[in-house]
Amino acid sequence: MARAADFDGSANETEVITSENLKGKKKFSILGQKGRVWLLTINNPQNHGISLDLNTVLAIFKDDIDAGRVTYISGIMEQSLTADDYDRHTPHGHLLTYWPNQVYGGHLNKLLPHAALENCNADTASVRQYILKDTNGSWFKKYPEKLGEKLPESEANFWEWGALPTGRKKSSGSKGSAPISETIMQAILAEKSDSEIITAFPSAMNRYSELRKVRFALMSQQYRSVYRDMTCIYIEANFPPKEIYDLFPHTSDVYVVSDYTHPWDSYSTEKTLVLTNYLGQFSWYDVQRYLNGGYCTLPARFADSVACYNTVIIISPLSFSNMCKYSKEYNPALLASYFTHLRRYLDLNDTGTDYARNPTSGTWERRYLLPPHNEPKKETNNND
Prior knowledge:
By secondary structure, this protein is α/β, with parallel strands linked by helices. It contains 13 helices and 14 strands. The strands form three sheets. Strands 7-8-11-6-12-13-14 form a seven-stranded mixed β-sheet, with no helix packed on it. Strands 4-1-3-2-5 form a five-stranded antiparallel β-sheet. The radius of gyration is 29 Å and the shape is elongated.
């Protein structure tokens, strides 16, 4: 099948057609047309109580997304070329959608009845160039004046969901999955986690192995020449699991290892690594790699990861010296040199005692540095 033509910028962006005003002639109108690439334009969306942000639009298309009927959507805000008597331009938003199997315009009209519809019959990427007002697109040759509709990036609020179709014919050996899109690669470079990317681009869930391989390639290039300034903390706490849970932060930027069988399978780019119930499960060779801040690969089943963390918290029921004895191959003196802080809890009621290693002498000095340590409250004399 030949590649679709480039979009030349000719589009209905003003006329809203509904089934009510067609009087039985629906099949001869835009509502009776079938197409894969549809451009929707909503003028003054705020007057219709419509927001064209990503979450709102995905909610509108939820049933079609869940059924796999629509695989790509992008949105952007623009302004009209002309202004009113008060020098105000009409705001309007574009939605670009791609449907692997043709869909009727009437279906889109039901989803967004205030939208002007254009059945593009064109390459999706070229329509994307149009809504972005990318001057490399074919539209610019015919309608250069439309560049004036472009808003500053902060006001345009461009977003994309799904994989942008390439327009290329699939080979006989193709499994039918679309390649990782440029937008997803930008999200990886921005160090978004797998869960954040899959939430924004659900179709990536079907290509998880490919996503992991792309992440490794991009992060490997980004971190190969980077030396990370490490903060390594050893916490001695022989506590039940619930109390252990309270000893470290719980944010999307924290990666917790509790199962050492395949510890790195879901590591993305989290900046804090927490190893719980650590008894020396990693080999001496690996533990040095994980703590030293140099370029480090993390072996996993789908594809290896690249260490991006700069803080490591190791929580063990054993004292540091006993943990080193437990794993007989460890060199206690050398291993201690990797750690910047130690914390020791004697029991559940203990607020914790902190020690920081003096970088000059190498000795451990008692400090109160690490959360969640709280200094005991001083008694106040209320008689004063």
